[in-house]
Amino acid sequence: MSLRSTLLAIASLLVCLPAGATVVEALELEQLSQASELVVRGTALESSAEWVAGRRQIRTVTRVQVSDRLKGDPQAREVEVHTPGGTVGDITQKVSGSPQLEPGDEVVLFLKRRPGPRRLFQVVGMGQGRFSVVREAGRELVVREPARLSLLYPDGSVRPSARFGPVPLRQFVERVQKANAGKP
Length: 184
Known about the structure:
Elements lengths: L2 H14 L5 E4 L3 H7 L2 E15 L4 E15 L6 E7 L1 E3 L2 E3 L12 E8 L6 E4 L6 E7 L2 E6 L4 E4 L5 E3 L3 E5 H11 L5
Parallel strand pairs: 1-11, 4-8
Antiparallel strand pairs: 2-3, 2-7, 3-4, 5-6, 7-8, 7-9, 9-10, 10-13, 11-12
């Protein structure tokens, strides 16, 4: 392939992607479950942003009170979740597709431990691994709003993330547990 053909192919791909979107591998619920060390239902308590990487990046750390553990450490009562981006002073850094956690949000999170001395977790699959628990007509449902993500599928296609649900919480939990049958 010539240099011109290669550049045209790259330019074509970039034109097809939504502006400001992050491209990640598309993950089904079962894949999210299997890729996670910890899957929890909980409530976001408080968030604080901090500089990392020599003041080149901002991350937000949110404390989440665990009300139910679907996979992983049975002792987890509270976890600290790291998400890229945030505001420190008058500087804001936004990362497209980064999951947002606001105090009071009731969520199901698919988490993987970050390396380092602090016991921090990151959401698997960016915004794909963050689901909201909502109540409607007396029922608990799980939904995921589309994140500013472009998803790369096994066939090579790239499509924007789509809304998930609503799915009854009980059915959602059963799918997660089935995906992890025989695993702690």
